[in-house]
Specification:
With 416 residues, the protein is of the alpha/beta class. Helix content is 41%, strand content 17%. InterPro entries: Calcineurin-like_PHP, Metallo-depent_PP-like, Metallophosphoesterase_sf.
């Protein structure tokens, strides 16, 4: 269903762009045919990118399609916003027009009106003279102006978004107070990162930069909250190797995201690979973090994307098996990729959930759509009495563009 909706949306977007950027900016002829074919080629490039990334195509084949996807998105958004002012201006122009629209007729420059040549016919233009077109129609002028505004706006927005997505993540300091946290655990620090999305558009430098920035935080715990990869170990294993250099007092932990289940072999190979890199996966389980004589329960559940294959979240397994006395007196931090898992977390007495998945919307105004599916798009919130922090993620999915949602690594500190 998602694929069908996406394909229909892409086709509709290209038809709309043809209507506004080609049909309303050109007269029938060579220029219109050339621009139409150009738009069809861009559509083919986009299709090739989406099919090819599933087949492990090289990154240079993925870049054009993903960049065009972002440009297409913002061209459609800007043109749609301009529809109302464009219609108002068009109405005024129609009222001001008298008779039919002016015809574009070449007019020789340098020839006097009514001049007669030696043979009795119209006089030839003077040497060096050029043809000058009569003024274009008001409708054509409006179409080209609208297209120019949309083009400049889309190019500027995507350029800014690429600089944000490909640059250093923002370090977001966050302090979270947990009412029943043992005071000895006050100041315990988590470096939280999600949605790194190692894939065809990221090189090993992307991973090295994230590891370097996390190590600079000198955190007690590193939490990788899903969507680490967009491919198999065979394709992307080399890009993940810098993770072996992660530094923290009590270790690095990982839970699966929905993208880990997109690989044909599932997340199993990546779980093993991360284990060899020194990153422990919490597969519906928990560990005890002992700090200054006190204990914190750190639990992790699989992503809901694993449910169809029997590898989904099991909160009972991850959070059960504790006596009522222990559960009541010990704070629990849960790693769960999607914020929507907070409902089940609340029923199991979790004090704080750390999530990702949303990318903060990644490209505004898409954040408004994400908010329809997830209870929190980004930042710290309280849902059903449980605090949840949703990081925007350190990478990107699809277009290498982030607008209104810069990449993030979170420095989260617990307080009592």
């Amino acid at each position: 269903m998602f694929v069908l909706i996406f394909v229909a949306g892409v086709l509709l977007a290209h038809w709309y762009l043809w209507s506004r950027l080609v049909r309303h900016t050109t007269a029938p002829g060579r220029a219109r045919r050339a621009m139409t074919w150009g738009l069809l080629v861009l559509l083919l490039v986009l299709v090739t990118t989406f099919v090819g990334t599933r087949m492990g195509l090289e990154s240079w084949l993925a870049w054009p399609g993903y960049v065009w996807l972002a440009l297409m998105f913002y061209l459609v958004i800007i043109l749609a916003v301009l529809e109302i002012p464009r219609a108002v201006v068009a109405a005024f122009l129609r009222r001001g027009e008298r008779g039919s629209e002016p015809v574009l007729v070449p007019e020789p420059v340098g020839v006097s009106a009514g001049a007669v040549g030696p043979d009795g016919g119209p006089a030839a233009p003077e040497p060096g003279a050029v043809e000058r077109a009569a003024p274009m129609s008001r409708r054509l002028f409006l179409g080209r102006t609208t297209a120019a505004v949309a083009g400049v706006g889309a190019l500027g927005t995507v350029g800014y978004g690429m600089r944000s997505a490909l640059g250093d993540p923002v370090i977001e300091p966050v302090k979270v107070t947990l009412p029943k946290l043992d005071p000895r655990l006050g100041g315990l620090r988590f470096a939280v990162v999600s949605d790194i999305h190692l894939g065809p558009l990221t090189g090993i430098g992307h991973t090295e930069r994230i590891v370097r920035m996390i190590n600079g935080l000198q955190a007690d715990v590193v939490a990788i909250v899903g969507d680490l990869v967009d491919g198999s170990v065979a394709q992307l294993g080399a890009l993940a190797r810098p993770l072996r250099h992660l530094e923290s007092r009590y270790g690095a932990y990982f839970v699966t995201g929905n993208h880990e289940y997109f690989a044909p072999e599932g997340p199993g190979e990546w779980i093993e690979e991360l284990g060899e890199l020194g990153v422990r996966s919490l597969r519906n389980e928990r560990v005890e973090i002992r700090h200054q004589g006190a204990v914190l329960d750190l639990a992790g559940v699989n992503d809901v994307g694993g449910a169809p294959t029997g590898d989904g979240p099991d909160f009972g397994k991850a959070l059960g098996g504790r006596s009522a006395e222990v559960a009541a007196g010990r704070s629990t931090v849960l790693l769960a990729h999607q914020p929507i898992q907070i409902d089940e977390a609340a029923r199991h007495g979790v004090d704080l959930q750390l999530s990702g998945h949303t990318h903060g919307g990644q490209i505004a105004p898409f954040n408004l759509v994400v908010g329809l599916q997830q209870p929190v798009v980004a930042g710290l919130a309280r849902v059903n009495g449980v605090q949840v922090y949703v990081t925007r993620g350190a990478g990107f999915w699809g277009p290498p563009v982030r607008v209104g949602a810069p990449p993030e690594i979170t420095m989260l500190e617990l307080g009592s």
